[in-house]
Design goal:
The chain has a seven-stranded mixed sheet, with helices on both faces. With 642 residues, the chain is mostly helical. It is built from 24 helices and seven strands. It is a multi-pass membrane protein. Its main location: membrane. It comes from Sinimarinibacterium thermocellulolyticum.
Length: 642
């Protein structure tokens, strides 16, 4: 959650009108940052791939063993600084103003690229390897700043869209940078072209960074611990204090493990199993990267402009299914060797491989974007950069583990398709493990799938629900899924008070229990359960939660709002908190309402994907709360449409 005090600390940048996803690119609070980070990712990959091509084909006197050594060493040298320096970088990002840090990092990039030019002119492999290590050292502090600055400049409803643009831009920059680096190095005078490119892009990145608005430090009094081991351990302790954040970090790290295996095996997979040349490798990498970009950009639309962690299980399902199908998509007969991209595309059977890679990328985007947004919203502002630093360390370690496991399994006799199949099955096991530890992910997926399959929801006035502190929301009661619709669209978790028989409905019961709903019965049915429910409501409000109540006490049988019962008055007397009136429109007659008999309702819904509305009004202060007043306000919000 983006707290009010954090918004106030941004020097007014948050006061701008909220932007659409692509409108953010034109906003000063996002556009310059986006250009800066995209150019940085692009430049890294121009140089890295140019260096690999230079070592592999351009430097005389290197034996095949030396080439393999330097190529693998290059990958390790770029990742190593993330392990060594991320913990310190996280502290620096908390202590100092972030836009100035970004500009300092970009100035350092210019210096490093000038050293890269010297290394290219000298043709010294050890020197260039040292430059690559410095590039990793320069990139390591950018990660904690990159993800912790977004909540300071974006509204909470823009975080998913902002993260989606960052992920899409990063993967496309990696793709284009990799392609350009190889193409430039293949030209006559390739080292000069690469030298000019990396310096110019670094300068452009610095110029773009000058437009990033100020982002004040979140922990200016922090004492920096320069010991990376103790600070790394402290970062992990921060993450352990919030189980959901910890598992989100592990989920992100697993994604990089999964992606590292797939991308590292792509060249040999193309050559040995598909019979393609380097143009086919580029084609497959392009399709996968475009998939990540598409999936990332879809997140904002599918999530309804909020952090929807229900997309994470959907993403993991797709990663598993299409990862498995990639194994079965391998041609049964040995392919011809040296196929160009055009020849590869002519074979209809190869289209299945392309679709699998595209859909794997799309579901990967759906998986990763909500997890980054979840960390940003669920972590405390004063620790956010350090948690992201810990995430970067784990990402690096998981990528190293991916390389080691791939080596071991391939040496054990597995083919590359079999290796990819094993990793896809491991993804399913990891997903089940994470969702069993934090059922909230699976619960949100079920809610998201249900309400987005059956309904199109128009939301109005949800900004009236306070961003923090206790509150009660009251709403008319039309269907068995009212609580799911409200809970799936309100930014904050809501603890609903619901009739115990609805609470016990199979499948929905898992969702209600995971959301910590409070079952209640009438005084004549079960007075002990009723008293227990009121006690739980009081405890929840005391803890600062939002409690949801349907004061009619039962589903409407005729589509009209029934008289509100006085239980809400008892709640507010015990816990004087604001009450937000809400109304549902258009649900009467839907599959889950009581308009028809049970047998008629057992048919398919008459209004599949029907349009409904959720409307919220201004909160009532506790001294003005009465059942009659709330009923009148809910009636006014609902209007004539049941």
């Amino acid at each position: 959650m983006l707290h009010a005090r954090e918004r106030a600390s941004t020097g007014g940048s948050m006061g701008d009108r909220e932007q659409g996803q692509f409108g953010l690119l034109c906003a000063r609070r996002f556009g310059p940052f986006f250009v800066t980070q995209t150019l940085g990712a692009f430049n890294d990959n121009v140089f890295k791939n140019a260096l690999v091509i230079l070592v592999t084909f351009g430097i005389a006197g290197l034996s095949p063993d030396e080439v393999n050594l330097y190529v693998n060493l290059a990958a390790g040298l770029f990742i190593l600084p993330f392990v060594l320096f991320s913990a310190t970088a996280g502290q620096i990002a908390e202590k100092y103003e972030k836009s100035r840090l970004i500009r300092a990092i970009k100035l350092l990039e210019i210096v490093i690229m000038l050293l890269a030019v010297a290394g290219l002119v000298l043709g010294s492999v050890p020197f260039l390897m040292g430059v690559l290590f410095l590039m990793g050292t320069q990139s390591a502090p950018f990660g904690p700043v990159k993800y912790s600055i977004l909540p300071q400049h974006l509204h909470e409803t823009e975080l998913v869209g902002g993260n989606a643009l960052v992920e899409a831009g990063t993967f496309l920059a990696i793709l284009l940078g990799t392609m350009l680096g190889g193409w430039l190095m293949a030209l006559h005078g390739g080292t000069q072209w690469v030298s000019a490119t990396v310096v110019v892009v670094a300068v452009l990145g610095y110029l773009a960074s000058r437009g990033i608005p100020a982002a004040p430090p979140t922990a200016p009094d922090l004492h920096i611990d320069w010991n990376p081991l103790t600070e790394t351990w402290r970062n992990f302790r921060f993450m352990q204090s919030n189980r959901t954040v910890l598992l989100a970090v592990l989920g992100i790290s697993w994604f990089w493990f999964y992606g590292a295996v797939f991308l590292s095996q792509l060249p040999n997979y193309t050559k040995l199993n598909l019979g393609g040349d380097e143009t086919v490798v580029t084609l497959l990498l392009t399709v996968f990267s475009l998939g990540i970009g598409i999936g990332s950009l879809l997140c904002e639309r599918l999530s309804g402009h909020k952090v929807e962690i229900g997309l994470v299980p959907l993403g993991s399902i797709g990663l598993t299914l299409f990862g498995i199908d990639l194994y079965f998509a391998v041609p049964d007969t040995a392919p011809a060797a040296g196929l160009s991209a055009g020849e590869f595309l002519k074979a209809a059977g190869n289209h299945r491989v392309l679709w699998d890679l595209l859909l794997t990328g799309i579901f990967g985007g759906l998986y990763i974007v909500p997890l980054y947004a979840l960390i940003q919203t669920r972590s405390d502002a004063s620790h956010r950069s350090r948690i992201i630093a810990g995430n970067n360390i784990l990402n690096a370690l998981f990528m190293v583990a991916a390389a080691l496991i791939a080596i071991v399994l391939l040496d054990a006799g597995l083919t590359i398709p079999q290796l990819l199949l094993v990793v896809a099955l491991m993804n399913a096991a990891v997903a089940v493990f994470i969702y069993s530890l934090v059922p909230e992910f699976l619960m949100r997926f079920l809610v998201w799938a249900l309400i987005n399959t059956l309904y199109r929801i128009r939301k109005t006035g949800l900004e009236h629900i306070p961003d923090e502190g206790p509150a009660v929301i009251v709403c008319n009661h039309v269907s068995y899924v009212d609580a799911l619709i409200l809970g799936g669209n309100i930014r904050r978790p809501v603890r609903f008070v619901m009739y115990y028989k609805i609470f016990r409905i199979p499948v929905l019961n898992f969702i209600f229990r995971t959301a910590k709903a409070i079952p209640i019965a009438g005084a004549k049915e079960d007075p002990l359960l009723m008293e227990k429910a009121f006690a739980e409501v009081e405890a929840a409000l005391k803890a600062g939660d939002v409690v949801g109540i349907f004061p009619e006490g039962a589903l409407t049988r005729d589509g009209e709002i029934q008289t509100f019962r006085p239980g809400i008055e008892r709640i507010i007397q015990a816990s004087p908190v604001p009450v937000v009136p809400m109304a549902l429109r258009g649900l009467w007659g839907s599959f889950f309402s009581r308009r028809d008999s049970f047998l008629k309702r057992a048919r398919l819904p008459r209004r599949f994907w029907s349009r409904i509305e959720l409307v919220a009004g201004p909160p009532l202060p506790p001294e003005q709360v009465s059942a009659a007043e709330l009923e009148a306000r809910v009636r006014a919000l609902r209007g004539e449409r049941a």
